[in-house]
Amino acid sequence: MTDFALQPRPALPAPEEGRPAGATTGPVSGHAPGLVALVPRARRSRGAPRARRLALDWAPPLLLYVVACALQLGLLALLRQPGSPALGRLLLGWDARLFLDVAQYGYPAPGAPRDLSGAWLGSNLAFFPLFPAAVRLVHLVTGASSGDAALAVSRVAGAVAAVLLYRLFGRLYDRRTGLFMVLLTVAQPMAVVLGMGYSEAVFLACAAGALLAAHRGSWAAAAVCGVLAGLTCPSGLAVGVAIGFGAVLTVRQGRSWVGPLLATVAACSAMPGYLLWVGLRTGRADGWFRIQQAGWGTALDWGAHSWDYVTDQMTGGTGWADVSIALLVLAALGGSVLALLWRPWPPLALYGLLVTALAIGQSNYASCKPRLLVPALLFLLPCAVALAKARPWVAWPIAGAAMLAGSWYGAYLLAVWQAVI
After folding, report:
1. Are the C-beta atoms of residues 314 and 326 closer than 8 Å to each other?
2. What are the start and end residues of every segment in region (Disordered) (predicted)?
């Protein structure tokens, strides 16, 4: 038996039922639920097949994700310049080539990467291992080319992330907020990277899974997702810290501290563990940082380069694309501050602030900032909450326009502007 009406959100369970304290819940909108209402929700009866319940629960975010992917690919094909690389090559450009190199050939032999004069060089050791390992596994199992395997891993990870985000924000707020959060995430400017040979989709899925598990008090799952996030990119440290914050909230309720502590230690150890491995392989404790500096001119400068870039573009921009990147950086900062007024679940707030700080706080390659901000989530929260509270005839046209604009922006930067992202 199914029904099409959005049911009121049940009251929060008591602490003994397993929900960590510190979660905030927004009111469920009294208006028609829009897209959620198009998918019948199975009643939670014991007789309902589990697979059917899961399919009905996953359908809305997956539908939005598929629409966003189709729109991004269509606009990318439409904007591709004559004589430019084929669509597949555009999706496998820039850092994707280096990820594929790791997937195909592994990391360089032990020893510091230096030139004949002894100066440090860039190296594939700068790239964390989980994404290329997944690409290699898919290649070996299916026989697909490494490029096709990379795109498949990103697409599947993006779909998983959409479902997990829907469940996370549906749990923190309500189902409509969860749905709009998915839409804004997969259609934001530069969300096209979620379908490229980059690690952002895998990281987003791991981060969303870790936050959801921590909120549910499933510490073993939080530990696994936290470790995987830490092996995906440097921002994985933000996931570990967020899990630690969630653990503190749980322990303060008087619950057992063993599971939360072990999850925190595991999640916070993965990213530093990879840096330590690179240090041992290169013979220098700061080997990973030296490789980053030598190969890409990237270092933690506490936002000095980002500040200079934003002020330069705002006072005398060199082109609309550069100005738009500066505006996106400002929007991410402003949205993150505004989101704090909604008093979000503290681990989510901490995660978002740390990912944003890590993206903006490093030097060089300002054009990469929008891509690095894709998994931050927090700055999208005010828009998601506002759309969830609006009437459907207002919310969905705005959301559709945002999806179209974000998809066009990413396709334009990738196919026409062709700067590194």
Report:
1. yes
2. 1-33
Predicted confidence pLDDT, tens digits, the chain (421 residues): 333 333 334 444 444 444 444 444 443 333 334 444 444 444 444 545 777 777 777 899 999 999 999 999 999 999 988 877 788 889 998 899 999 999 999 999 999 899 888 889 999 999 999 999 999 999 999 999 999 999 999 999 999 999 999 999 999 999 999 999 999 999 999 999 999 999 999 999 999 999 999 999 999 999 999 999 999 999 999 999 999 999 999 999 888 899 999 999 999 999 999 999 999 999 999 999 999 999 988 888 888 999 999 999 998 877 888 999 999 999 999 999 999 998 999 999 999 999 999 999 998 788 889 999 999 999 999 999 999 999 999 999 999 999 999 999 999 999 888 778 8
Instruction: Give Cβ neighbours of residue 271 (< 8 Å, ≥ 6 apart).
Output: 128, 230, 231, 234, 236, 237, 240
- What are the boundaries of each domain within the chain? 57-417
Q: CA 75 to CA 412: how far, in whole Å?
A: 8
